[in-house]
């Protein structure tokens, strides 16, 4: 088996489920898929714009989208308090008004707080990216991220960084693993994310695999 298959797509229907729930005719499928991507990008751009004023990072684990005939329900699973949660009602209403402008159907946005944010690969990747932007050593950033994750009770984690690490002329891949990460076991629930970060040396890619449990 190749190493390039997405662990989430590989396990759909067994231990993983879709983040988007809707039905569409074959001719409308691509349009709905693009609409999902546009919704996620609009929310991320809004959060990034707001976070320029405050400190910290997005802290969004993932977004669930459910579509009906006249309504789009978006649930944002968030790890840390930020401008969306401060002044809870006002922040959500402002976000909803900004995103609603781009879509004809009625949009409803809700926020759910995650108990163990560092057990989510997207939040962990953002943490590593923030450390690398602050010129922290990549090894130190990876080890610190693994320490934070181990406190959540996971069974294994693998972190990989690729690109011109530390400004070296030749790009390379560095990775570190703690515990078990059985990528070829379908019954093993594995969370995965791929994150891109722009530094003064160029673009770096961060990939994280987290082994949650096994059914």
TrEMBL record:
One molecular function GO term is: RNA binding
Cross-referenced InterPro entries: KH_dom-like_a/b, KH_sf_prok-type, Ribosomal_S3_C_sf, Ribosomal_uS3, Ribosomal_uS3_bac-typ, Ribosomal_uS3_C, Ribosomal_uS3_CS
Q: What is its main location?
A: plastid
Give the UniProt keywords, A-Z. Plastid, Ribonucleoprotein, Ribosomal protein
UniProt keyword Repeat, yes or no: no
**Family stated for the protein in its record:** Belongs to the universal ribosomal protein uS3 family.
Q: What is this protein called?
A: Small ribosomal subunit protein uS3c
Q: Where in the cell? A: Plastid
Which residues belong to any copy of the Small ribosomal subunit protein uS3 C-terminal domain?
A: 128-210
């Amino acid at each position: 088996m190749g190493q390039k298959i997405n662990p989430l797509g590989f396990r759909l229907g067994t231990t993983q489920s879709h983040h988007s729930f809707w039905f569409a005719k074959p001719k409308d499928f691509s349009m709905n898929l693009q609409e999902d991507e546009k919704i996620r990008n609009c929310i991320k751009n809004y959060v990034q714009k707001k976070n320029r004023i405050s400190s910290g990072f997005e802290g969004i684990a993932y977004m669930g989208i459910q579509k009906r005939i006249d309504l789009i329900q978006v649930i944002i699973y968030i790890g840390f308090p930020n401008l969306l949660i401060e002044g809870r009602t006002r922040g959500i209403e402002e976000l909803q008004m900004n995103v609603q402008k781009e879509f004809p159907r009625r949009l409803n946005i809700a926020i759910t707080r995650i108990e163990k944010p560092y057990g989510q690969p997207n939040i962990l990747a953002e943490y590593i990216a923030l450390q690398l932007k602050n010129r922290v050593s990549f090894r130190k950033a990876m080890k610190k991220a693994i320490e934070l994750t181990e406190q959540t009770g996971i069974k294994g984690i693998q972190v990989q960084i690729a690109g011109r690490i530390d400004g070296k002329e030749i790009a390379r891949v560095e990775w570190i693993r703690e515990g078990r990460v059985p990528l070829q076991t379908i019954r093993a629930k594995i969370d995965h994310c791929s994150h891109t970060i722009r530094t003064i040396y160029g673009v770096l890619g961060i990939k994280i695999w987290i082994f949650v449990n096994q059914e």
